[in-house]
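Example 5.3 — Aconitate hydratase
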Amino acid sequence: MPNSSPYLQTLSVDGKNYQYYSLATLAGVYDLSRLPFAAKLLLENLLRHSEQPFVQPDDISTLAKWDVLNTVATEIAFVPSRVVLQDFTGVPAVVDLAAMRDAMVALGGSPQKINPLKPVELVIDHSVMVDFFAQKDAFSKNTAKEVERNKERYQFLRWGQNALDNFKVVPPGKGIVHQVNLEYLARVVFIDPLTQGSSSAGMLYPDTLVGTDSHTTMINGLGVLGWGVGGIEAEAAMLGQPVTMLIPEVVGMEITGNLPAGTTATDLVLTITEKLRQFGVVGKFVEFFGEGIKHLTLADRATIANMAPEYGATCGLFPLDEQTVTYLKLTGRDEHQIEVIKAYAQAQGMWGSAAQQTAAYHATLSLKLNDVVSSIAGPKRPQDRIALTDAASQFKHWLSQQEKLLIATDDPEKGRFENEGGQQTSPNDEKSLQALCDYNGQQFSLKDGAVVIAAITSCTNTSNPSVLVAAGLVARKARALGLSVKPWVKTSFAPGSQVVTEYLDKAKLTDDLEAMGFHLVGYGCTTCIGNSGPLPEPISKAIRAAKLNVSAVLSGNRNFEGRIHADVKANYLASPPLVVAYALAGNMDIDLVNEPLGTSKDGKPVYMRDIWPTNDEIQQLVTQVVNSEMFSERYAHIFEGDECWNSLQVVDSAQYNWPDSTYVKKPTFFAGMSLKPEPQTTIKDARCLLKLGDSVTTDHISPAGSIAPDGPAAEYLREQGVEEQDFNSFGSRRGNHEVMMRGTFANIRLKNQLAPGTEGGWTRFQPSGEQMSVFAAAMEYQRQNIPCIVIAGKEYGTGSSRDWAAKGPLLLGVKVVLAESYERIHRSNLIGMGILPLQFNSGQNAASLKLDGTEQYTIEPIILGQQEVEVSVKKDRARFNFKARIRIDTPNEFSYFSHGGILQYVLRSLN
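Solution (predicted structure tokens):
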């Protein structure tokens, strides 16, 4: 970083002098008090990189003016300070780094030149499943099974941990990435050492990040700007490349008042999620300010920030203030670092909610904490909040709708509502709504609404001691009164940090939770991402035989249809103490406010109010049992694994040895790569692989979910000797391009207009018109050296920015995508993989140009700054041309494209 920059100033903290890029240097020209906190962070980022070619002076002036009345879509570069990964989405990123090392050697360079240029931390948290529960050794058994299932992936990650600089791995069983990030990894303000001999103690700049998980936003509760991105953006950030983004619209939410007694941070976040979803904040930044946030602990703020994806925002940012300092001290951060953070924030006008009071927001909402009531959300969306007082009636209404649907659609021979005489019975007939079940030495009737999963899980709530202590106190009081969890409930406890179990042990609440079946099952993402594990076989059989509408209650952040468990139709988000209460009740049709949960050992009815702790009880216990020493002790060895992890055999070398594996395989992105980029050549006589309509999402393009037993990916796995029961999911096999390319464009809901009457990964090979799988056609085109094109409608590539939505098409031989419009990040990802994104000119599309996908397409090479390109079309003997827009929007993007992709660009620049 140049010492001559006009933006550099000196800040003195505790007798040490630091340099920093000061926003105050712009204060004489711009009114910076109008900028929200997030805009100030983005502006500092531009100042710090102002001498890089991807930052223009107009970018700085446009952002500094902050004109919310005349919003113009302006792209800026954002260079995050670090990257966080979880194992599902992180493995392919590390696979690419390993392959880049091999390519670097092939080009005559040293493999050690390929390392993340920014700090990268990967936390293994997405692979543990709840196979064992309600037993003392559930944690050790689940962890052992996790390592056994994922041995090949974990061996690879251990190699990366040893071989790569700037890359650290948190082994399995340590915690959830977002909670580990909050409690330990976050710097808040970076202190980078300067060159030897400098009089400055270092360079200060904000801790900003991107992560390969949508709930990366949890760190916003600590005043750190970050959000989730796709794998290609994460890899670019790892390698020092900027993330391009539009200057965001920022919505301010003013918080006032205090939470009422008996309500929790979970109730608050469900209320905020409902309110912001109704307003509409998709793609926008949200900032929280106002007197009320002073009463929200850092853990409360993190709970709210975590669910930014659920309310649709890019991020949900809180200010840096005294609550931040209190939390940093609690979690054992260095005292001088804390002083630096406060001094830096004050110098930059980023300190406290008061700094946001004068900010100009694109819109402002308000929320009174006093209006928050006990709530749950469901049965299938996080934003569908239900006041607890209405939960039973709302569930019964939902159930009646399900029953009407079954009556209308059920097979008469297998009808759920059919008596022995073959006549339809009323859905109110109790016999038709239950099934006898023998399990674990008990016999009981399983009914509609039965809570078969009760899970205290996920980073959202297990970062918050108040709700976990509350859950423990509910369990303690229920146990003292002689209540027990219903025998059909699969209970589990999967906290996001090892600190949680330590303070629960210290509070002597662990025994009470275990008495209710909430034994520790693992430290990781479980029920929330569908890793709830199998239900006991008798329970599962009963549900399926009687077609019961059963429920799950979890303290997570997502409850989408089919996500939690295949047998469970109704899924509800709730606070940890409410999860315990519903496990005791055993059914969603109970009015927890007015009906008893059960009967005490002396025969009296017990209501939820009898076991619900007061706010004072919770706070007193939290104060007694949570201290900084436990954070310091637990995180002292966070990167060290247990015996299972340490016993994994790994190659000790700068290059990965790529052992035979169906999980991790060397990709072919760099095959035949030369030291200089090959000149562009004409894309000649390309064939259309798929012709698609509007709103094709990355879910349609990218492989996800289970691997269908009759598809190309399954055929490949069988050829490798993998049995069907061991197929696992596309998510677990993201490190094997052979599996992933076979699952590209194979979504069962994809409609390819080239293969009318079909759904899924089908196309017609041209010119013969033979119908075959997309993969088979792509391989035949490649064998004949014929390039491919994809034609699409509006909003191509919407949804999650999955890396394989761009990597997969590349491996299938797609050179060009021609669409009516693009989702911004997917367009960028296509360029990042060397695929040319073209756009129909206004008023034109495939229909108006009479393109049916049977044609041949020729496109000449493009040059920097070119806006349009001629597309030559040949069909039988007919010939015609039309012009299409080139959607390579910046010089940086053209550099990536001309090198064949962003990874090739970085490889050559590092050689």
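Remark. The first helix runs from residue 37 to 48.
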